Amino acid sequence: MILLRRNRSPSYIFCFAVFWVYILLLMSKTIFPIPIPEDSLTRWPVTNILSRVNLIPFRFGHLFENHPNVVFRELFGNVLLTVPFGFGIPFVAVFRAKDISWLAFGLGFAVETAQLGFCLFVGGSYRSVDVNDVLLNAAGVLLGFSLFRGFAWLYLVISAQVKFKQRGLFAYVHEVAMHGIAGVSKPDTAENVTLSQ
Question: Is the peptide bond before 187 cis (omega within 30 degrees of 0)?
């Protein structure tokens, strides 16, 4: 309703809705469910929780002693988790391509900070807080954005060859692709709301 009041186009609202569902899924994998302690006696001291935080990059502890499937899930799972963010963010937010690295590390930092905050809130280390997760999440965002740039280039090439009239969602995707190739993300605004009409 807020987006409609701001004269956002249906195409933008559709992309925003898809991206929002992804954000909810990301939160369900990284933060929820949050265990609620039954009593204060089960709470860990803050020093115990903080002692389990890994702030040393590329120190994985005993990770590589586990089964290869566990190693794959821990490493590549953290990368794949944020690929959709890097691919989808140009469709819903305005930013310059050179700022994507800050956005990538910002997402990873936000996720790990939220996990640490909830660990302190519940009084236990229910999620691991690790700087390596920040790096892996950032790598996923950068990979996703690279895939978006490739998609944008391919979409523009194909649409130029086919030469069909860009209307509705296709017009919006075409506009985002053009700005993506130019290095500036420019999702729907009140000025170009006519793209989806």
Answer: no
CA–CA dist 151, 131 (Å, integer): 30
| Peptide bond connecting 33 to the previous residue in cis, omega within 30 degrees of 0 | yes
Query: What is the spatial distance between Cα 178 and Cα 151, in angstroms, rounded to a whole number?
Result: 11
* Coil/strand/helix, residue 184: strand
The predicted pLDDT at position 184 comes to 65
Q: Packing angle between helix 168-182 and helix 10-30, nearest 10 degrees?
A: 70
Tokens of 8: 């956002």
Per DSSP, which regions of 94-167 are E strands? 95-96
Residue ranges of E strands in the chain: 95-96, 184-185
Q: Could you read off the pLDDT of 67-80 as tens digits, one per residue?
A: 888 788 888 999 99
If you compute the radius of gyration of the chain from its CA atoms, what whole number of angstroms results?
20
3 state SS of 130: strand
